[in-house]
Amino acid sequence: MQRPTILVTGANGQLGFELARLLAPLGDVVAADRARLDLANPDAVAAAVRGAKPALILNAGAYTAVDLAEKETVQAAAINARAPGILAEEAKRIGAVLIHYSTDYVFDGLRTTPYPEDAPTAPLNVYGATKLEGERAIAATDAHAVVLRTSWVYGLRGKNFLLTIRRLAAERDELRIVADQVGVPNWCASLAEATARIVGDGLPALAERAGMYHLSATGSASWYDFARAIVGDAGQPRGKARGKPRITAIATADYPLPARRPAYGVLDTARFAATFGFTLPDWQDVLSRCLAGRPDTA
Ligand SMILES: NC(=O)c1ccc[n+]([C@@H]2O[C@H](COP(=O)([O-])OP(=O)(O)OC[C@H]3O[C@@H](n4cnc5c(N)ncnc54)[C@H](OP(=O)(O)O)[C@@H]3O)[C@@H](O)[C@H]2O)c1
User: Fold this and answer.
1) pLDDT of the residue at 236
2) Maximum Cα–Cα distance for the chain, whole Å?
């Protein structure tokens, strides 16, 4: 049987990099980073799909600078809202399956129990609003698209909370971390492995399961909890004779940022589990495996 071509956008991002690596056994991966495919250019997006003729598109590219998006609204919308719609249109035209990633930031964070897929959306910031528009643009095409909402993505490369905390832990005696925002940290490799697993069931099965799903590790944490787990598990930062920094819980109000964040963003993953037959482990176990440097064991 012919190996399917798999087009990965944002292939140098946290998730895109892992997808390109972990999906390679399942097909011929076209890893399109920003230099190869600018998602802000609609013609380039269509041309990339027409050129590669993929059976599967993994859209891991996104405008993820949450605070900057408050200013760069046009760029954020082009990448997060318009590009996913074009990818879906092009996927439909050639009978490809699209897997797209979205975020808990489509919700307002006012719930205190996990958000199911059909909970009302009400993003608090431009990033969340553009990601929601992207979801809607995909749905409007009626393409075979699986949309996976996730949260708090981290890894050992790129820009993320884990690497920031590790750096600050080596520099400072005290870290002041927000404790009144609750969500679930997700290792990019774990998300990529889950994606490989659902693709591994075959593209016809995936097409039949088109729809919106929440994909996340189990449990929940505040940023403060996450920081404590990172510093604790990471051990004493290198070159720091005086030991680990003190971690102090602060309120969101004590750390003002341009974009508002939801206070609660835990995603209910029951639909994903019922459809695909598995759940991700507890976020602390996933973090331990990430910090142990075994990226193949999501
Ligand atoms: N990060 C999170 O905490 C989080 C939480 C929930 C959901 N998500 C979603 O998960 C998915 C993967 O996110 P991630 O964490 O892997 O993000 P990431 O590490 O920021 O990766 C995003 C990638 O998209 C690329 N990109 C940005 N603008 C582009 C453009 N105009 N054309 C082509 N590529 C462009 C970036 O390229 P450059 O490296 O050149 O900027 C980067 O490689 C996204 O859909 C995101 O919305 C992320």
Assistant:
1) 47
2) 61
Closest CA to 148 of 92, 190, 96, 204: 190
Q: Which amino acid makes up residue 85?
A: G
Q: What would the two tokens of residue 148 be?
A: 């996976």
Q: 92-142, pLDDT tens digit by residue?
A: 999 999 999 999 999 999 999 999 999 999 999 999 999 999 999 999 999
Cα 256 to averaged position of ligand 1 atoms, centre (Å) = 23
Pairing of the two strands 56-59 and 246-250:
unpaired
Distance 201 CA to ligand 1 centre (A): 26
Residues whose CB falls within 8 Å of the CB of residue 13, separated by 6 or more in sequence, listed in order: 60, 61, 62, 64, 158
Let me know: does 153 contact 14? Beta carbons within 8 Å. yes
For tokens 């405008």, what's the residue? 63
Task: Please tell me the distance between residue 61's alpha carbon and the centre of ligand 1 in angstroms.
Answer: 5
Pocket test for ligand 1, best of 7, 33, 34 (most atoms within 8 A of CB): 34
Q: What is the pLDDT of residue 293?
A: 80
Pocket test for ligand 1, best of 107, 153, 164 (most atoms within 8 A of CB): 153
Euclidean distance between CA atoms 298 and 215, whole angstroms: 13
Distances (CA, A) of 287 to 18, 162, 185, 214: 16, 10, 8, 19
Q: Are strands 174-178 and 5-9 parallel, antiparallel or unpaired?
A: unpaired
What average pLDDT does range 192-221 have in this prediction? Answer: 97
Phi-psi region of 239 (alpha: psi -120 to 50; beta: other; left: phi over 0): left
